[in-house]
């Protein structure tokens, strides 16, 4: 395969002022570069390059996750529990003394023992269960528990009261002529009758304020209250609140009447004078007088038009009021079965205590404070009992705990807002001592927000207490935000969710700020959050810097740590953008990413500037490698900022940071060049030139080489050098190094395959096929890598257009590799030449007695076997190239066989025509092989023409000669001047008129740079015009632009002129006085297209016709092919025609 070593590079013709890649790669792999700077000794020593490229892959792998903006789905990789938050027992509520604990215990027991009202379905109704639960909470012994219960039982029972809010009524009965009523409510406490009412068959009568009571004793006037009158409505809204003292919770009832107001002096004013009524008897007489019109279902007689009408009543036993109170619609009832009423009334009822005989009440401790202490105690107990080590506890209280708190809250007359405030204060404080779920705390804030319209009713000390809890919680939250990365890592979805809830809690707290008379925050909370985040960023960075790259260390030792620091900063910025930024922006309206990026980018830039200045004088390969890796990360930080819409990197502290890294990058690229050669050398040394596996057809070294080139391309993309001029220098050098490495690899393959002994008689060499596949794979890989080495142009360029130096480099390398492939292909097919010639000769020597398919069968069988091997060994592109080469070999072999057999039978040529078509079908393979266009081009056309001409008669060959002359006229070839003529057929005289006008731009054939041209005019083919002789013009001396204006007539029949091959042939000669005339050019004009033949004669002379300009040319090979066919003919007509043309050829051969 020595011919492979003789290939010359075409790069020298493509790239100016640059030596050929092949010449530059002839040296050893470790030879010095043309760059005057010699590689310094350092980290990377000569070897096989494996370690270097492994390190390079690690560097590039870091950049894989830095393409584009990060996605939260990629960053959130863990759903494990969030890191534990810091807790401090001192941040909770004040610890109680033993005396205070005992008083709180008695307060809880008192609440349970003196409960009143109806227990709800979710509450614990068993008193012993509640008392036992309190014993567990306070940790008392059975004796202590029994003694405490006895003390509480001896205490005075509490004073109860009923809070009634009359909200509204709906669908009342219309009593006025206008279709409405003027309703008001009259309500009070109905004392017990002293003895239970016995059921009986008599008609049921309901109490009304107009009736007396059989219960003895005075009835205080404050037991009856009245609402305002709401005029002209059936759906009145009152929203009035009343408080009634209860003497006997078990027997007293709340009674409510609704009346329609009808006169100016009615029950409304009368009720205001009830202070004069001292007993039930007098009150009954008074009401009996003013409401007597209601006796007959509210129907008044003619003398009673100005009395109030009854609309309905309610009787609610106090013992049936739920412990937690209730907000409910009650259906209005009639006074008797004869009454007609309709509608509903909404009441809010709550049973409270106004006086409590407990130690805490005696010492002036409000129910608010008592509830806070009790809730704190219960919350701690419940947390320890249910989930002592969990940060996800949501404050779910057990049934006994919820019941005790409900009883105490109701008895202490705490509003819904006060309860919400208390639960927030206690839970938020407890969270700082034992972590709770932030969703639970957020729910408490939302519950407090629902009732915040009652905020004006909060006493000042309770408001101050709430403000203190807000301040404590915000301080705690800001402390956590300062250590955001520790307690809420971006990779932990659980921690990120906790952060989201914490921010929502802080944001929700801001909504309460305008309502406080005493502002709990000195500044806006989001400003405090931003300050905490900035401080936390600096603390995190300083901690990282001191750990990885302490300033007291020397520069080379700090470099590796600074690379890790920059990587950590980049990952942190990814987390800020992908996870934290959206939370802070949407919840507290803080641009956390910009705040963090600006701060960390400036800090990293300061460290990088200082370190590069220190290391520049100490540049070694190890330092260059570290600086190169550091620059890639810094460039990634810049590009990360630029990739965000609306951001630009010119304002960054890292802008221009590339300048001090340039010497390190240049040195590192030199190392890359040498390491790539060593890596390729090592790969080829261990290559066995066998396919790696059944799925691929190239060997291991090609995979290694393509991987190296891919890494180089990725590296350049990561480098993204921002300075266009410097990028062009770096990119040009890197592309040249890559081209040299590619050709260096092909040379190594050639040497490898040449050193292997070939198998005797092997027509298809598997090592050659592998080499061919390797080169093709590398051609694609190198081409793709070179296209990926484009750099930003200093001036605007078209999108996708490579810079000119890189384009020239890529084109030159591609041409070199294609030539390499062509050479290897030729060497592979050269082993099949002898066999192909043998089988073609077998076809030519086959007797006419056997069939054509039998004669061709050995050749087809041979091709089928060899192409099956090639198909299994070659990739598609190389298989196509080998098929093309084999096709050309076959065509040439057949042409040689035809040339060696002249003047044989027509069957001989018919057999080869059959062979040619069989080979076309074989190589086309129904569209799976070579395309028909390429098969029937080039040598195929020549072969097909010769076969066709061999089967033609002598006259048909002569006519083909002239047809080829006419076809030549339409093809663009090098011209030998122009000739202007006019032709016309005169039917009346049956003659052809040909006028030679002038010529121009004739070739100079004499020594003086001129010619003495004349024109020979003749008709052809001769057998169509046997009686016509040729004519010639006069000789025009010493000119290249002769003017003739000569007219010639040829007497010929029109039928002969209409033949397809009939033409007039113009031959321009240079007249020589002392030697043979020289040929200047020729042109042919078909007679079928001239006037008088193609169309009827209109009239006028030949000189009135438009002239035709013909381009003079020399005869082409396809014209000469017909002549060669005639040379093999022995008949007289063919020999005479050939003889006359030979004389013309002698003139052409004498042409200098």
From TrEMBL:
The UniProt entry, under InterPro entries, shows: C2_dom, C2_domain_sf, MUN_dom, Munc13_1, Munc13_dom-2, UNC-13_domain
- Species of origin reads Odobenus rosmarus divergens (Pacific walrus)
Q: Give the subcellular location.
A: Cytoplasm; Late endosome; Recycling endosome
Assigned protein family: Belongs to the unc-13 family.
Any keyword Glycosyltransferase? no
Under PANTHER family, the record lists: BAI1-ASSOCIATED PROTEIN 3, UNC-13-4A, ISOFORM B
This chain's protein is named BAI1-associated protein 3 isoform X2
Q: Name one GO cellular component term.
A: trans-Golgi network membrane
Provide a GO biological process annotation: regulation of dense core granule exocytosis
The organism's taxonomic lineage, starting at the top? Eukaryota, Metazoa, Chordata, Craniata, Vertebrata
Q: Gene name?
A: BAIAP3
- The source's superkingdom equals Eukaryota
Residue ranges of the MHD2 domain?
Answer: 853-961
- Domain C2: residue ranges: 141-300, 975-1101
Looking at the record, the residues that make up the MHD1 domain are 628-749
Q: Where is this region: Disordered?
A: 16-46, 195-216
Keywords tagged on the record: Cytoplasm, Endosome, Exocytosis
Q: What is its main location?
A: cytoplasm
Alphabetically, the GO molecular function entries are: SNARE binding
Q: State if Endoplasmic reticulum is listed as a keyword.
A: no
Q: Which residues form the signal peptide?
A: none
């Amino acid at each position: 395969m020595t011919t492979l070593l003789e290939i010359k590079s075409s790069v020298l013709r493509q790239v100016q002022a640059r030596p050929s890649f092949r010449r530059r790669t002839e040296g050893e792999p470790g030879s010095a570069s043309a760059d005057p700077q010699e590689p310094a000794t350092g980290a990377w020593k000569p070897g096989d390059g494996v370690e270097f490229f492994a390190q390079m892959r690690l560097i590039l792998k870091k950049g894989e996750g830095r393409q584009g903006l990060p996605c939260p789905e990629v960053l959130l990789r863990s759903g494990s529990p969030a890191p534990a938050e810091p807790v401090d027992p001192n941040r909770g509520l004040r610890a109680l003394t033993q005396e205070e604990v005992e008083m709180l215990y008695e307060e809880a027991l008192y609440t349970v023992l003196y409960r009143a009202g109806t227990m709800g379905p979710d509450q614990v109704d068993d008193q012993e269960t509640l008392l036992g639960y309190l014993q567990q909470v306070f940790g008392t012994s059975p004796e202590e528990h029994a003694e405490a219960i006895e003390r509480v039982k001896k205490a005075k029972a509490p004073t109860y009261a009923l809070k009634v809010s009359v909200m509204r009524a709906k669908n009342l009965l219309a009593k006025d002529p206008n279709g409405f009523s003027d309703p008001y409510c009259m309500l009070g406490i109905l004392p017990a009758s002293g003895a239970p009412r016995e059921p009986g068959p008599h008609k049921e009568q309901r109490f009304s304020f107009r009736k007396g009571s059989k219960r003895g004793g005075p009835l205080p006037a404050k037991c009856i209250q009245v609402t305002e009158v709401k005029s002209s409505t059936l759906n009145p809204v009152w929203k009035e609140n009343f408080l009634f003292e209860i003497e006997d919770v078990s027997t007293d009832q709340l009674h409510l009447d609704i009346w329609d107001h009808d006169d100016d002096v009615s029950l409304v004013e009368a009720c205001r004078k009830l202070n004069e009524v001292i007993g039930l008897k007098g009150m009954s007489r008074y009401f009996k007088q003013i409401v007597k019109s209601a006796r007959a279902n509210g129907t008044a007689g003619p003398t009673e038009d100005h009395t109030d009408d009854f609309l309905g009543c309610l009787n609610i036993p106090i013992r049936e009021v739920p412990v937690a109170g209730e907000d409910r619609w009650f259906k209005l009832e009639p006074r008797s079965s004869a009454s007609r009423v309709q509608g509903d009334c909404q009441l809010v009822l709550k049973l409270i205590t106004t006086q409590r005989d407990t130690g805490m009440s005696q010492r002036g401790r409000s129910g608010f404070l008592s509830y806070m202490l009790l809730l704190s105690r219960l919350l701690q107990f419940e947390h320890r009992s249910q989930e002592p080590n969990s940060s996800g506890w949501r404050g779910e209280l057990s049934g006994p705990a919820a019941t005790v708190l409900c009883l105490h809250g109701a008895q202490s007359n705490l509003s819904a807002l006060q309860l919400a405030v208390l639960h927030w204060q206690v839970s938020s404080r407890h969270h700082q001592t034992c972590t709770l779920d932030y969703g639970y705390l957020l729910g408490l804030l939302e519950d407090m927000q629902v009732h915040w319209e009652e905020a004006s009713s909060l006493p000042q000390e309770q408001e101050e207490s709430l403000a203190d809890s807000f301040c404590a919680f915000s301080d705690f939250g800001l402390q956590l935000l300062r250590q955001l990365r520790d307690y809420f890592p971006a990779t932990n979805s659980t921690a990120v969710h906790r952060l989201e809830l914490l921010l929502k809690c802080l944001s929700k707290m801001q909504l309460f700020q305008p309502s406080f008379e005493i502002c709990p925050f000195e500044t806006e909370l989001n400003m405090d959050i931003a300050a905490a985040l900035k401080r936390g960023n600096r603390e995190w960075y300083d901690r990282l810097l001191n750990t990885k790259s302490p300033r007291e260390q020397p520069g080379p030792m700090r470099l590796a740590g600074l690379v890790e620091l920059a990587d950590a900063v980049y990952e942190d910025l990814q987390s800020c953008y992908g996870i934290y930024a959206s939370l802070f922006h949407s919840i507290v309206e803080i641009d956390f990413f910009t705040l963090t990026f600006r701060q960390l980018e400036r800090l990293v830039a300061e460290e990088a500037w200082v370190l590069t200045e220190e290391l520049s004088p100490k540049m070694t390969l190890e330092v260059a490698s570290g600086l190169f890796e550091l620059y890639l990360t810094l460039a990634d930080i810049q590009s990360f900022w630029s990739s965000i819409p609306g951001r630009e990197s010119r304002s960054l502290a890292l802008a221009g940071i590339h300048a001090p890294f340039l010497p390190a990058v240049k040195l590192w690229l030199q190392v890359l060049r040498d390491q790539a050669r060593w890596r390729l050398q090592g790969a080829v040394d261990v290559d066995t030139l066998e396919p790696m596996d059944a799925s691929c057809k190239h060997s291991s070294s090609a995979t290694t080489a393509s991987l190296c080139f891919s890494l180089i391309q990725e590296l350049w993309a990561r480098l993204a050098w921002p300075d266009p001029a410097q990028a062009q220098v770096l990119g040009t050098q890197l592309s040249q190094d890559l081209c040299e490495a590619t050709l260096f690899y092909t040379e190594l393959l050639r040497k490898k395959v040449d050193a292997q002994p070939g198998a005797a008689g092997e027509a298809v060499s598997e090592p050659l096929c592998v080499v061919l596949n390797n080169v093709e794979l590398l051609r694609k890989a190198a081409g793709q890598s070179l296209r990926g080495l484009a750099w930003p142009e200093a001036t605007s360029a078209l999108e996708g257009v490579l810079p000119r130096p890189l384009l020239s480099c890529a084109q030159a390398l591609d041409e070199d590799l294609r030539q390499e492939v062509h050479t290897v292909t030729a060497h592979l097919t050269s082993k099949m030449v002898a066999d192909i010639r043998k089988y073609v000769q077998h076809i030519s020597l086959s007797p006419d007695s056997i069939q054509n398919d039998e004669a061709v069968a050995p050749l087809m069988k041979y091709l089928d076997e060899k192409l099956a091997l090639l198909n299994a060994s070659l990739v598609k592109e190389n298989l196509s190239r080998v098929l093309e080469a084999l096709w050309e070999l076959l065509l040439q072999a057949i042409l040689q066989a035809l040339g060696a057999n002249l003047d044989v039978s027509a069957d001989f040529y018919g057999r080869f025509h059959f062979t040619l078509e069989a080979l076309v079908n074989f190589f086309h393979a129904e569209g799976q092989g070579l395309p028909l266009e390429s098969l029937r081009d080039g040598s195929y056309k020549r072969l097909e023409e010769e076969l066709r001409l061999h089967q033609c008669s002598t006259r048909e060959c002569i006519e083909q000669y002239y047809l080829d002359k006419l076809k030549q006229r339409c093809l663009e070839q090098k011209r030998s001047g122009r000739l202007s003529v006019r032709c016309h057929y005169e039917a009346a005289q049956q003659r052809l008129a040909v006028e030679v006008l002038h010529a121009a731009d004739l070739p100079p054939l004499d020594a003086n740079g001129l010619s003495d041209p004349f024109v020979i005019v003749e008709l052809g083919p001769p057998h169509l015009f046997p009686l016509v002789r040729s004519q010639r013009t006069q000789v025009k001396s010493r000119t290249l632009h002769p003017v003739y204006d000569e007219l010639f007539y040829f007497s010929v029949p029109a039928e002969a002129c209409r033949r397809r091959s009939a033409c007039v042939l113009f031959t321009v000669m240079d007249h020589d006085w002392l030697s043979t005339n020289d040929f200047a050019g020729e042109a042919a004009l078909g007679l079928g297209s001239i006037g008088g033949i193609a169309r009827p004669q209109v009239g006028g002379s030949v000189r009135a016709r438009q002239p035709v300009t013909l381009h003079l040319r020399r005869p082409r090979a396809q014209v000469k092919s017909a002549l060669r066919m005639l040379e093999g003919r022995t008949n007289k007509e063919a020999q005479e025609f050939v003889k006359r043309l030979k004389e013309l050829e002698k003139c052409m051969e004498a042409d200098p």
